[in-house]
Every structure is written in structure tokens, then in C-alpha cells.
Design brief:
By secondary structure, the protein is mainly beta. The chain is built from 3 helices and 33 strands.
């Protein structure tokens, strides 16, 4: 695990600003480039107008520079590795470009280890690898912003390494039928982040998990807001949110439903269950709505805190069978 200090906190970005990322990115693609793309290759480097049959060739053409790749509608059995630079991967029509079942380096459809990346409007599905960590995106370093994308029917949606100075932002995206506990190395999850500087998830949906947690993050700071965690059709799932080393930040204005088929139903949100790597005294949990799926008859804990640092949670709307907050020895 990396031990360098995180960079100073940046000014909070509004949801409106984050939401504009995808629209601005698509709007920035010259219309002529899109017309050329329709007539020729599916992957067009916007800045040059050059089209490519393979996504990796478009990535390599940008190299250590900054550039955008417009991706035409279609189903692609391709993957790519970003080694450097700042690259935006943009569906020319959001939701119409599907990456299906092919991974690079036995990891993911997109393996990202450049300075930064943006992903907008893409669909990732059917990612499976022998170590049970097959993902739509493997983020190994740098900043990543994701908007209006869909991760489904894979072992994991997003998996990251450690980058204490990195920032992961996810907005208006959906995570469906992800996760597995089949592998000998432990469970995979809808999202699993290493020790990143900040992880922000807004206006996104998690549903129908197939094992593990919906969101597991070792980030130093988290902001999870205005999202839904619908476990009603989940199978063998665990926590909705697991912050195994603790974290600062907020979990606010989300909607949680715990389903019938659980491997672990003890809590909705777990804090520092694997140790106190980060201070959790500044973590705020407020404005959330949490309940059980129809027909579920059990008790659970809304926030289980192994750190003992939080001192409680704010005002939330909870099912009567939920314990609001409990410190676990």
C-alpha cells in the first residue's frame, strides 16, 4: 500500500458541474469528425480527424499528449491500454458503443495508467478473467472521470490500484449484476477502489449485485451522494458501502434497499472493518433513506462503525428494524 500524503483538498465541484462533463465532451467533437467517422473507422482522434479500426491504435496515436477519441455506435470485442497522456474516451451517441467480453492484460476493457482519463457514454459488459477480477475499467494511476456509462454482467465494474493523489469521479452511471465471491482470493465488487485520494460517486445506480459489496473503497476521502443502491434482486451480496479502512467525507441523500439473498446482512454501511487506516471522525452520514425489500423480515444496522471515531450519524429516514448506528468492538 502506498504511504505518500494526499494532495490538499480541492474546491468541491458541484453536481451541476460534474453533470456537464459528458455533454461538453460530446459537444466538443466537431461535426465533420463525426460524419467522417460514420463513413470510415469507428475510432476517431478528434484533434486530427484520423480514424482507426482498433482502439489501441487511436490511444497510441495520442501517446503522451492530450486528446479525445470519438467512438462510433457498435459492439466492440476490443480493449486498450493507456500508458501515458490525458485521453477522453467518448461515445458519439451515449449508450450506443458497447465493449463486450474482451480484456487487456487479463484485467479490463480499458486499462488506464496515464496522467488522466475521461469516459463518457460507454457500455462495458461480460468482462471475465481467470482471477475473477474482470472489469470494465482497471484504473492503475491518475485521475478518472466517468459520466453516463453502464457497467453490467461482469465480475467487477471498476477496479483501481492505489494512488493517494488521484481522484475518481463517477456521475450518472449504472452498475448492474456485478460482483462475485467465486475466486479463492476473495470477493469482487461492483466498484472496488484502492487507496485513492478521493472517490466521488453521484447520481448513479447500483442494482442486482451478484456477490461482494456494491461499493468498496479504501480511499482517503469519499463523497457518495444522490445515488441508489437497490439490492432487491441481489444474490449473495454483502454491504451496500464498505469503507474497510475508514474515510472522511460524506454519504448523503442516497436510497438503500436491502434484499432477501444476502451472504452478509449485518449492516448496510460498514466503516473500518479491516482497521483504522484513515481518520473517520469527519465522515458524515445524513439525509439517506434505508429500508428492506418487500417480504424481508430481519433486523440490521444502518452504519456499523469499527473505528468508534464517528460518534454517530445525522438525520436519516430508516426502517424501524434498522439500528441507526452501532460501534463494533
Amino acid at each position: 500500500m502506498l504511504t505518500s500524503n494526499p494532495r490538499p483538498a480541492t474546491t468541491r465541484v458541484s453536481l451541476r458541474t460534474i453533470a456537464a462533463i459528458a455533454a461538453l465532451a460530446i459537444a466538443a467533437i466537431p461535426f465533420a469528425s463525426l460524419l467522417a467517422q460514420d463513413r470510415a473507422a469507428p475510432f476517431t482522434v478528434v484533434e486530427t480527424g484520423q480514424g482507426y479500426e482498433k482502439l489501441q491504435d487511436a490511444v497510441d496515436a495520442i501517446g503522451n499528449s492530450r486528446g479525445s477519441i470519438a467512438i462510433a455506435p457498435g459492439r466492440y470485442e476490443q480493449c486498450a491500454v493507456q500508458e501515458s497522456g490525458d485521453i477522453a474516451f467518448l461515445a458519439s451517441q451515449p449508450g450506443s458503443a458497447i465493449f463486450d467480453g474482451v480484456t487487456c492484460e487479463g484485467k479490463a476493457a480499458l486499462v488506464l495508467r496515464g496522467r488522466s482519463a475521461e469516459v463518457s457514454g460507454l457500455v462495458f459488459q461480460n468482462m471475465r478473467v481467470p482471477d475473477f477480477n474482470g472489469s470494465g475499467i482497471r484504473l492503475e494511476q491518475g485521475d478518472l472521470t466517468i459520466a453516463e456509462s453502464w457497467f453490467r454482467d461482469s465480475q467487477q465494474g471498476i477496479l483501481t490500484h492505489n494512488d493517494p493523489e488521484g481522484r475518481l469521479v463517477i456521475d450518472r452511471s449504472t452498475f448492474t449484476r456485478l460482483g462475485t465471491c467465486e475466486g479463492s482470493g476473495g470477493c469482487a465488487h461492483s466498484i472496488y477502489t484502492g487507496e485513492y485520494g478521493e472517490v466521488r460517486v453521484t447520481r448513479s445506480r447500483f442494482e442486482e449485485g451478484r456477490g461482494g459489496h456494491y461499493l468498496k473503497s479504501r480511499a482517503i476521502r469519499v463523497n457518495v451522494a444522490s445515488s441508489s443502491f437497490d439490492d432487491a434482486a441481489g444474490r449473495g451480496t454483502n454491504y451496500m458501502i464498505d469503507l474497510p479502512g475508514g474515510a472522511s467525507g460524506q454519504i448523503s441523500n442516497n436510497w438503500f434497499v436491502q434484499g432477501h439473498d444476502k451472504e452478509n446482512y449485518a449492516a448496510f454501511i460498514a466503516i473500518a472493518a479491516e482497521g483504522r487506516a484513515h481518520d473517520s471522525s469527519g465522515l458524515s452520514v445524513t439525509g439517506n433513506d434505508a429500508r428492506f425489500a418487500t417480504g424481508v423480515d430481519r433486523n440490521s444496522i444502518f452504519v456499523a462503525d469499527w473505528s468508534g471515531e464517528m460518534g454517530g450519524v445525522g438525520e436519516n429516514t430508516l426502517d424501524r428494524r434498522l439500528t441507526r448506528y452501532e460501534v463494533i468492538d
